[in-house]
Structures
1.
Amino acid sequence: MGIGNRKTAPAAALALTLSVASLAAAAIGNLGFMSPAMGEPAALTKKQSDALNTYNNSRSNFEQILAQRRAQIISKQLPNLPGQALYLARNNMMSAYKDLTDALPSRIGGPNKYGIPPAYFSVDNEPLLDEYRRLFDIMQAPPASAQHSDTPFKDVVDLGTAIARARGLDAANAEAAGRISLGLFFAETNGNQNIGNARSNKYKGSLQSGVSEDQSGQRKWAAIKKQIAAFDPALNARDDREEARAGNLDRRYNHWTAVRDALMNAHADIFPQVPAIVKTLPDPIDQMKLFELIQIIPSPTRSALGSRNLVDYRISDPRIMGYLRNNSMFTFGQADRAKTSATFREILDAMWLFNEKFERALSKFDEIKKQSKR
């Protein structure tokens, strides 16, 4: 599940020329430990030196894989699942940087444009993450047959809101469901339509569904279609047009049907709990995170919602913790990876890589609301 905007880069974009040796020299030069007498950097402890070397090596490896993927794109010789090694290399670099800043707190720098906590990411590495996003954009580009929408964000909000109304929510809570749905679109695809998946051969489309999930969503939509038509005939007419347009196409590659079916499959049954969720988690970003967890760890999230205390519900199953780590939670640095359990409050807090996406979703949602009032 890659990240990126739709802007691609020329082949020369990966002119990332820092060598491991120069990185090490620069890092040591910026450690901030100066001998008062000599005016020279103080010697590192073995732990600090090991952490620095590990970080430099992981950064160099990330650079190399970025360059390799760019060359493979140019030569049209990408391997299967080309994003997986790239994703792991990014994680390894961030993990090694966290271990470095744990050993050398003076290495924690300023904020970065991605909103990643500075203890996990150096602002100097922004160009690497920029290229990472550009490569995922290319590797996950929609097929030529994909059917785009001219109003992709509004579609998500309209569908989420209508489904929530059909599930019995009042106007205010249905609006919250529409906002949450838009957050899912950004979380799954960075707000890009109909994309593939460079890390999986199973999940595709605007909300990254598998075939069985999409088919389940189609059946559930058919069961409420007449109900929605009764209170929103315009949306129902749009649905009829999109169905006719899709024909025999994989419904995951029509933006409208992909979003519709994904929401029906995984989230429609949870929408009746939105009022209680909003009360428990008043922060809209926390609400989006919770619904994203239904994508990642559905059964434990449903169990947590059914408990008496959502935020304190604890996950201890190593398999579930593994799923979280595979989705960038508790995976950066030795201290994070040592965790064997976590409450849902801790899980929500660990989802900081999603924050920037959800903030953009909120901004887009506000924009849609303003346009609808004109």
Note: Residues 1-40 have pLDDT under 50 and may be disordered.
2.
Amino acid sequence: MPPPERWFVLSVTAPETESVRDLIAEGLVALGGQSVLDEGHTLSTFLSPPSDPDAFAEHATSVLREWTNGDISTVSWSWRQNEDWEREWRRGLQPRKISPRFVVKPSWASWDAAPGEIIVEIDPQMAFGTGEHATTRGCLRLLDSCFVAGDRALDVGSGSAILSIAAAMLGASEVVAVEFDPDANINARENIERGGVEAIVSLREQMADPALISELGQFDVILANILSGVVRPLLPAFEEALRPDGRLIVSGILRTEADDVVRDATAAGLRLLKEDQEDEWWSALFVR
């Protein structure tokens, strides 16, 4: 479907607290936002034009207040021509050096790779999975520290497929990416093809549940950059799906939620090996 001639822009006055800003951004994407633009005091997203802009803005305000436990103030809306959105969106995405080996960049930006650097090229159509979010960076750093060439990997909630592509470029024998969102998967397939890893990464458009995880077999590495409330019930299934020397990387977790995740992981037979913390976010590497 071609983009509209103009976008409906929903803007939220955002506090300085990083964790709340991240929750607002996630809420904007949940409302159907195509990307999230950080404009300092406000976070804005771009949506297809609703039939009743005022009613949609009122609905969005209610959703965002629930998403953030009421920690937002002003929600406003405006119009922006499509070419303006494209220009602003591209301006906000620049190459990032994530770890000793990983650099993430969009296709329109250049990077002079140093020896040993791995360039992961992602053109996202959504807010996350670009290297612009702390949870993605945490996963990539932990992945860089523990991955072994030849590993078989599972990426749960694969989004833009950035983690799947990174695993493939580290030498994975196979990567199974599982993502329920069909819109995310359109973008993921483009990124997988652009990265030249379609022979290694297979994409399953399904909801990840214990039955599916069991069906997919055994893995050396499991990646789960998903919310705490989603990852915790899946920890026993992840443990069963890991090979004896397998590694589990989880992210998308606030620091305040880390103790609960560690407790549930320990109960499932997993041991915390390494942590990564950035801003309000916590990522972790577990082993059996």
Note: Residues 96-287 form a domain with the Rossmann fold fold (CATH 3.40.50.150).
3.
Amino acid sequence: MRKRLLRFSGTRLILLAAAGMVVYFLASGATNLVRSLQLTQEESNLEAEIDDLEARYERLVALEAYLESDEYIEAIAREQLGLVKPGETAFIAISTQPSPAPEEGSATDLWWEILIR
């Protein structure tokens, strides 16, 4: 066995070491390439998320501006509070068709009617 080890010349050892270094650098380069691709994908995902958040922010700013506007305040005063401007006449539209009677056991029964049954 000693004779086999002695047969390796210095040139062969240098070539073997060089081949090992080449394999190491190729494996390291492949690992770095895979990591680079992963980081590129993550970067594009984050950029898409940033775009979505910026669009959402713009919608929220527009909504805030609308909620602070006189137009919104007037709409709420008219629709929900029933207020009118001076000189206007308020009216309520009433349907001519009667509403259907609720069925027995429906959610519209009063709680005390359910309790008495």
Note: Residues 2-98 form one domain.
